[in-house]
Amino acid sequence: MADQLSPEKILGLGFGFWNAKTLLSAVELGLFTILAEAPADAETLRSRLGLHPRSALDFFDALVALGLLERDNGLYRNTAEAALFLDRAKPSYVGQILELANARLFASWDRLTEALKTGRPQSENAAEKDFFAALYADPARLRGFLTAMSGISAGPAKAIAEKFPWTKYGSFVDVGSAQGMVPATVARAHPHLIGAGFDLPQVKPIFDDFIAANGLSDRVTFRGGDFFRDALPGADVIVMGHILHDWDLEEKRHLLANAYAALPKGGALIVYEALIDDERRTNAFGLLMSLNMLIETPGGFDYTGADCQGWMREAGFAETRVEHLLGPDSMVIGVK
Ligand SMILES: C[S@@+](CC[C@H](N)C(=O)[O-])C[C@H]1O[C@@H](n2cnc3c(N)ncnc32)[C@H](O)[C@@H]1O
């Protein structure tokens, strides 16, 4: 038995940070954006990125081995996926979330053991009680965080636009909308809908720019407020994406009650996250996201579809169901 076992998987996981940091540095340097302009040989690429000669070739060839670059006759080019998702000049760029992972999470995760022992967050604003106020005090970090959210919500937004029965409804509000990826995607796919993004007032200019760039300012507006202090704007459908996991159980219940109060009878709440599978065995990304909430927030945690349906029913929702979106993401729908 023992001679059939291999340490390969264990060692691969243990050294996974090598892979992650190589990709994150390439994104930070803008390597994929440069190669999207034209394929380049090693010396041209090295000099454009401002790299020391010692390890440039190893760096580029590691990216080939990791499946992010191709090399033909000494010329490096992006793979099809890297060209589509890692070129900053394209609207399909998802690297904002990797920039955030590189600039903030990589260092904070170094203190995971401390977080596990103490239950205390470890991010750079861990001492602050109000995570978002601390993060948003700096305009550059505000914009960086909000655009990074677009990177993680672009895929689920498309799936929500396709899978939810929008024809039955006339209006929606995306609560904690960030830059507005969900409102923009849903409104673009369903021209009969009127939509709004609800978020902290500091978010307004960044939301407005994004909605205007998408040509949707006539149908999608911004509503500023605090979802712990203010009533939510009324609409037929309320969306909450990656919101509940930021908060502790009491706060989660408060947000669900707030959504219930704002909906008409027959209205629907869509909660989407990297939901943990009900058996808590297979959605590793959802479970690791929950550890990320430990690192980032005072009381946040991720949860299963069954957990969320239970809280929705306690809040008064008559019907609830879970539907898979894509990858690790699923939505829980509650109908009032
Ligand atoms: C993790 S992001 C999720 C963004 C987006 N829904 C998505 O799925 O990518 C959480 C959002 O909640 C907003 N938020 C945090 N506290 C809030 C509050 N008290 N009232 C309103 N919005 C808040 C943040 O500004 C941020 O846009």
Automatic annotation (TrEMBL):
Span of domain O-methyltransferase C-terminal: 109-317
Domain of life: Bacteria
InterPro entries assigned: COMT-like, COMT_C, COMT_dimerisation, SAM-dependent_MTases_sf, WH-like_DNA-bd_sf, WH_DNA-bd_sf
Keyword S-adenosyl-L-methionine: yes
Membrane-spanning intervals of the chain: none
GO biological process entries: methylation
Residues the record marks as active site: H245 (proton acceptor)
Keywords noted in UniProt: Methyltransferase, S-adenosyl-L-methionine, Transferase
Span of domain O-methyltransferase dimerisation: 15-87
A single MF term (Gene Ontology): protein dimerization activity
Record's protein name: Methyltransferase
Originating organism: Methylosinus trichosporium (strain ATCC 35070 / NCIMB 11131 / UNIQEM 75 / OB3b)
Taxonomy of the source species: Bacteria, Pseudomonadati, Pseudomonadota, Alphaproteobacteria, Hyphomicrobiales
